Amino acid sequence: MAATSVHKFAQTITCHAWSPEQTMVALCPNNNEVHIYRLSEDKWEKVHVLQKHDQVVSGIDWSARSNRIVTASHDRNSYVWNLEGSEWVPTLVILRLNRAALCVQWSPRENKFAVGSGAKIVCICYYEQENNWWVSKLIRKRHDSSVTSVSWHPNNILLASTSTDGKCRVFSTFIKGVDTKDSVTGTSDSKFGELIIQLDLSFSWSFGVKWSPSGNTLAYVGHNSMIYFVDDVGPSPLAQSVAFRDLPLHDLLFVSERMVIGVGFDCIPMVFAADDRGIWSFIRYLGERKAISSGSKYGSQISEAFGKFYGQSKHGASNDAADTSKTHENCINCIVPLRDRGTLIRRFSTSGLDGKIVLWNLVNEQDLAEYYLK
Asked: Which domain of life is it from (predicted)?
């Protein structure tokens, strides 16, 4: 399997997000603007430029239900953009930050969104109908350094965050009047900002964090070339760590309960999967022509992967060894799902410092992962 299509939009892409119908993509070309492109007759046409921020836009999320875009920027501001007629109209969000906003994500029900910042604060933002504006409640004095990534649990209440203090934390974001008591049993009893668990698995900066589709597993990555998996998040979590000799990951995505795609400084996605015992391991680089041997289960997988790494460059790897235009040529900093019907994610896109957005198709990867881990 290889990348299905590649498009170069800019010299560098900071972040990107897809419209609900996935016919348009919003991206930041490493400046204070957000460019929106529409696919028309197999070509991408720039149809909107969102101009309101004063500094680099560090986060974009496009809501699937309400068709709203939220942006966050190093200028310490966030905007919610609504399409009115043919124009995107911004609404300022009151964040009350004194440092850069670094990441943003809508909650599953889209009645809230979370913003991580360099001020060691997470802002949980919600809409006040009576005042017609977005306000925020702040989770303070929990992080010792910048908040690099946030991820919502499927229950719309729990929020995971990672930080350059090396820790991953899970908080309750229950807001009276915004969330309902019947959201999920137990979580609505906790107060806003209550620390559910703090994970001290990494001794280096922590970056991307994601929940599995069911919310039973939490995964995050460290700058020490490790990825961490935590089951039964709560008083007695079950944690695993997977080390690899390649460059660190920056972000990750669950495509199923047992399979994770990690992206980062190696410029090519990496596949991790759990076997029937729930043990996670590295499987392969996405788009490799030759699959990892299944002879000696774990040893041969890792050794052959290392052989590929040291024997040939992974940059530009694809099904066709001569075609190097189909993958990234610089760090991948963003991975976004393209959702089809059903619970499994079959397609996703990646963007990076090379200015490309690459679309990937997982038609056979699910079967491959389970085959190697039998």
From this structure: Eukaryota
Tokens of 361: 């198709």
Place of tokens 């604060």: 121
Q: What residues form DSSP beta bridges with 30?
A: none
Strand-pair partners of 90: 81
Distance CA 325, CA 7 (A): 10
pLDDT tens-digit map of 218-267: 999 999 999 999 998 877 889 999 998 889 999 999 999 999 999 999 99
Rounded Cα distance, 224 and 330, in Å? 19
Tens digits of per-residue pLDDT, 70-120? 999 999 999 999 999 999 999 999 999 999 999 999 999 999 999 999 999
Q: Which two tokens stand for residue 128?
A: 């006040």
* Residues whose CB falls within 8 Å of the CB of residue 321, separated by 6 or more in sequence, listed in order: 289
Question: Distance between terminal CA atoms of the chain?
Answer: 21
- What does DSSP say about strands 206-211 and 217-222: parallel, antiparallel, or unpaired? antiparallel
Cα 132 to Cα 192: distance, rounded to the nearest angstrom: 23
Cβ 33 vs Cβ 51: under 8 Å: yes
Query: Taking Cα atoms as reference points, which of 193, 176, 237, 233 lies closest to residue 210?
Result: 233
Element housing 306 (H / E) = helix 299-311
Please count the residues of the chain: 374
Cα–Cα distance for residue pair 367/319, rounded to 1 Å? 18
- Give the integer Cα–Cα distance in Å for 4 and 2: 6
Contact, 354 vs 333, CB < 8 A?
Answer: no
Distance CA 195, CA 191 (A): 9
What is the distance between the alpha carbons of residues 156 and 108, in angstroms, rounded to a whole number? 6
